[in-house]
Design a protein that fits this description.
47% of the residues lie in helices and 15% in strands. The chain is built from 15 helices and 10 strands. The N and C termini lie far apart (81 Å). The model has no long low-confidence stretch (mean pLDDT 90).
Amino acid sequence: MAKQTALQKEAGILKSIFRRLFSLRIFKLIIIIITVLLLAPIILFYFLRPVPVKGISYGVTFSSKYATELGLDWKDAYIKILDDLGAKNLRLVVYWDEVEKYKGWYDYSNIKWQLDEAQKRNSNVILAMGKKVPRYPECFEPDWLKVSGNPAIKEAALLKYITQTTQELKGYSTIKIWQVENEPFWSFGVCDEIKRSTVEAEISVVRAIDPSRGVLVQDSGEGGFWLPTYKLGNYLGISMYRKIWYDFWGLFMKKFIYFQYPLANWTYKIKANLVGVPIEKIMVTELQAEPWGPGANSQLSQEEKDKTMSRTDFIGTLDYAQKTGFKNFYLWGAEWWLFEKELKNEPYYWNTAKAIFQ
């Protein structure tokens, strides 16, 4: 009886405390804020959830450098991607260190050959150019310019290169969009900082020479802010990676780890709505479709490859992408699919991708 009385007394004290707390405005405000924070994801998902679109368009990024690194004949690989794989939408790369090996001497033969072949097949091309473009180490300044420590000299050389490239290649109707720089504000690769003012100057040059075509600027799909990058051009390109091997700027005691992004497929569209970028202006220009491991893909063991891009991951990534609500996807890794097929006797990735293109 005494124990029951003590419990009743304690319960009465707790009720009194809660009554006093709820009488305080600050406590009510805290409860409201916590409730809103808990319900916000549900509300956002309900109103902004993506709906898979009809007529999804698939393409590939092609890098002559990467194909060569894998031990392929890059021209042969490119033709097979066009004709056997059946890719009609391409993101091609102009590599500055190849085009201007010597100061003021420009050689566009490699990229012109690619554009000529694309034009024969009525392909649609996004052409990436600048200092920072696809494939590691990301930045491709020519050797003669690397020795300069003067930022003004480097920027002048870059703008001259952008001018020359746009003038030289604008006659190709197969080019539908110019891409200026690749993730210029995302810290990845062996690259000096690229200032926003520099990218603005590059885009101004392109628009002055060819005002009829749009400009795309790329940002990280997982970590970028999107809107500031989108405002520079007409389209926003984003990456979409699922599993990677990375050190995250030394946050994990400078150790590389395998990591899966904890992002549901609907988070990208909700992010687009929240930051104010029209979803129809976003292209997934790097959809992970190859491994990301501790070394060159040509040297990884099967176990290491499977940690970030197994057969199941490949299908899962395509399914994931289709549910994001975006319409345009450029798969990242076509050269590796061919490497697996021809040099590793593993045609699964090539044949599976072939089915979605054809």
